[in-house]
Specification:
alpha/beta, Rossmann fold
Length: 445
């Protein structure tokens, strides 16, 4: 008998000859003729396929197959690898691996197209905690946002009458725009530390910021009627440590730690609210980190292992690679810089020998500003654009191009889609389609 694979689509042909619906067949990897009509004649359309009806299996065999399938699913969950479970159901393992490490493809350098989103940012203090948020019509979810050291919530809003002093840095604003475009309410918090602006997230039960954020959000959610919405959290650097810890003391539907991780042993504690006597499962986690920060990459790998094996959490990662510095990097991402000015910035950096022959940065821009900053200060098109570290959009985009340690807005829709499919009720969503016929089809194909 000549062995080959048959297409699941051919099942429709079998159904057309009165052998039952497509769901009643398990496809066998053989190539043969199968009788299909009452006279026992073989249809020419079925020369290259063979179906075996489930009814032909004895009850004992069917029961054994079902038992094996159930054991397989339990084993996958026990191993703490929900990605394998997802791959079994959806056949997506190869796709997931390709998207985690795009190896310099165009997608690595993608820019969120959110230029048409209109926003009205508001800055408020709630019981001493500074927040900047944007209201949206018919909100679908909430996205909590946490800055890194030397930053604040004011990075996430434009300077305006309702958000005085706000900086509107490009990556932060692109994140906010993407959230608003999805009808997610973006809420940025400032840390309680007014000196170095880092988050108090060194020790889980000694943190001042974790209870402050919980109480502030609860009051804001009640006032704005957001209590029943899914809640996600994204943080960069020190803010990433904050969201990893926050998930242990506040039920969240998914978190996005960027460019930072925690010592693995700190992620072993069961998420609980000691005061309320409640516990919950750790939410899905989507790590985003950069290629030149190899120490963080190693810690992320260790954290992923702990979160899967100890917490049973859904976890994945995305590696951000260096990108070339072009005029488009500035005109396409920084508001207030037109194409002519962006071209002048690019030429100034090239003249300062900061870029190599393929326009990638040769050195860390944070450590070499003495080489290129004077030339930029002389450009008239940059009047009104900050060139001070931590408040400068130019610095931010150069750090992004270097790809060692910087917040990033790229791929946020993809990240939120992944989280949305796996939030706290995501297990039920993913397991619902896993019916015996579907399992058998995967086993026999």
């Amino acid at each position: 008998m000549d062995l080959s694979s048959t297409s699941v689509k051919q099942c429709r042909t079998a159904a057309a000859f009165g052998r039952g619906s497509c769901q009643d067949f398990v496809w066998v990897r053989v190539r043969a003729c199968a009788p299909a009509n009452a006279a026992g004649q073989t249809s020419p359309q079925m020369q290259n396929e063979r179906c075996t009806s489930l009814s032909q299996f004895s009850p004992t065999v069917a029961a054994l197959v079902a038992l094996l399938c159930a054991a397989l699913l339990v084993a996958l969950q026990a191993l703490g690898d929900p990605e394998l479970l997802s791959a079994l159901m959806w056949g997506s393992a190869s796709h997931d691996k390709n998207t985690l490490h795009p190896h310099g493809t165009a997608a690595t350098f993608g820019v969120q197209d959110v230029s048409t989103v209109h926003m009205s940012d508001e800055k408020k203090e709630i019981d001493g905690t500074e927040v900047v948020y944007t209201r949206v019509d018919a909100p679908k979810a909430v996205l909590l946002l946490f800055h890194g050291c030397s930053h604040s919530a004011m990075d996430w809003g434009r300077n305006s009458a309702t958000c005085p002093g706000c900086l509107g840095l490009p990556e932060e604003m692109a994140i906010v725009k993407t959230a608003v475009a999805r009808s997610y309410v973006p809420i940025a918090f400032s840390s309680s530390d007014e000196t170095n602006r880092c988050w108090d997230a060194q020790w889980l039960d000694k943190s001042l910021d974790i209870p402050n954020v919980k109480e502030t959000f609860q009051k804001l959610a009640v006032r704005e009627r957001w209590e029943k919405l899914p809640v996600y959290a994204l943080g960069a650097s020190s803010g990433a440590s904050m969201v990893l810890f926050l998930a242990m003391r506040m039920p969240l539907d998914g978190i996005v730690p960027q460019i930072m991780s925690l010592p693995p042993h700190m992620l072993e504690a069961k998420p609980t609210d000691p005061a309320a006597g409640k516990s919950w499962t750790y939410p899905p986690v989507y790590f985003v980190h950069m290629e030149l920060d190899r120490a963080t990459a190693q810690r992320v790998t260790a954290d992923i292992n702990i979160l899967k094996t100890k917490q049973g959490a859904w976890v994945t990662e995305k590696l951000i690679r260096p990108r070339p510095v072009t005029a488009q990097l500035f005109s396409g991402r920084v508001e207030g810089i037109n194409e002519n000015t962006a071209e002048a910035v690019y030429k100034a950096l090239k003249a300062a020998e900061l870029l190599n022959a393929t326009d990638y940065l040769k050195e860390d821009p944070r450590l070499t500003s003495a080489k290129w900053l004077p030339a930029l200060k002389a450009l008239p098109g940059l009047a009104g654009i900050s060139l001070v570290p931590e408040t400068s959009p130019i610095y931010e985009e150069l750090n992004l191009a270097w790809a060692r340690h910087e917040i990033i807005s790229d791929h946020l829709d993809e990240v939120l889609d992944w989280l949305d499919a796996r939030r706290r009720d995501g297990s039920a969503k993913l397991l619902a389609p896993l019916k015996p016929r579907r399992v058998l089809r995967y086993l026999f194909l």
